[in-house]
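Reminder to self: tokens first, then the designed residues, so the page reads top to bottom the way the pipeline ran.
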């Protein structure tokens, strides 16, 4: 992966400050322990007082040196974070993005390109997840110089093969993030839905996870193919027992299938927990979506 210059510098300094320093300190602790142990062994022909004094001196020097290393190390870390205007968590996440998540940038890019009207909100999400700045987002996600569709498709295929090797938790988190990029503004269009379903299939999620993704994000779909509309057609409904469910959807009991689908979608756009605007009321939205989903399933038969 080719990094922009400032990220090359960040990686180099991060490794020096957090990785190499920690290795050096661990090595020094081992030497300290060994020195203390050796100094505590009685030496032939030396008085007990001298032995204890020598051991105490070695231990003091080792302790004092370790304290100096810790102080210097903390100052270096503080200066490093200040230079990049980040706290430790932000620096760690940014480092992980550059060393791991960046491999999957072609899929992030594809999700964003499928939903170009939501670019500003997508940028805010990317900053929140990975603590990227505008330059990094422009270079790695919205790089307009890369217009070779064949090369882009090859990059996506290679990325998917790499993503297959990740653990289940990472893959699930990544798919949820892609969904959050495509649902922005007005929900999920057919091309976005097909891309996500194809990706889920390629990543070989089991049936339970496939159903989880469908149940969670299908309410945000804006359109369906004709065969899906026919399969979802509710036919005869027992209207007399469904009044409360129609009320939940804000509909009259004689609503058409199209009106039901539209109301369902609009409520999902208001209350879906994965929408950025609902970040402060996720628990409430989870419960609300359960209620909306139940109502939708009941009224469509």
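Designed residues (301 positions):
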């Amino acid at each position: 992966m080719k990094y922009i210059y400032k990220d090359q510098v960040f990686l180099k300094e991060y490794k020096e400050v957090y990785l190499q320093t920690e290795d050096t300190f661990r090595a020094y602790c081992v030497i300290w322990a060994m020195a203390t142990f050796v100094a505590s062994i009685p030496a032939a022909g030396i008085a007990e007082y001298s032995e204890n004094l020598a051991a105490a001196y070695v231990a003091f020097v080792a302790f004092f040196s370790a304290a100096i290393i810790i102080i210097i190390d903390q100052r270096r870390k503080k200066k490093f974070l200040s230079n990049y205007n980040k706290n430790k968590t932000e620096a760690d996440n940014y480092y992980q993005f550059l060393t791991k998540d960046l491999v999957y940038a072609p899929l992030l890019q594809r999700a964003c390109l499928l939903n170009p009207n939501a670019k500003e909100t997508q940028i805010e999400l990317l900053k929140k997840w990975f603590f990227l700045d505008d330059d990094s987002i422009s270079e790695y996600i919205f790089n307009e110089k890369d217009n070779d569709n064949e090369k882009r498709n090859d990059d996506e295929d290679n990325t998917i093969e790499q993503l297959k090797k990740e653990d289940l938790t990472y893959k699930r988190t990544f798919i949820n993030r892609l969904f959050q990029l495509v649902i922005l503004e007005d929900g999920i269009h057919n091309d976005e839905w097909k891309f996500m379903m194809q990706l889920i299939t390629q990543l070989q999620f089991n049936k339970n996870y496939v159903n989880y993704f469908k149940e969670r994000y299908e309410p945000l779909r804006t359109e369906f193919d004709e065969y899906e509309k026919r399969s979802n057609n509710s036919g005869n409904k027992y209207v007399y027992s469904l009044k409360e469910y129609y009320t939940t959807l804000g509909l009259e009991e004689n609503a058409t299938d199209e009106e039901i689908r539209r109301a369902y979608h609009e409520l999902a756009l208001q209350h879906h927990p994965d929408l950025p605007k609902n970040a402060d009321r996720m628990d409430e939205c989870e419960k609300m979506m359960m209620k909306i989903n139940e109502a939708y399933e009941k009224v469509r038969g």
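The chain is about 70% helix and 0% strand.
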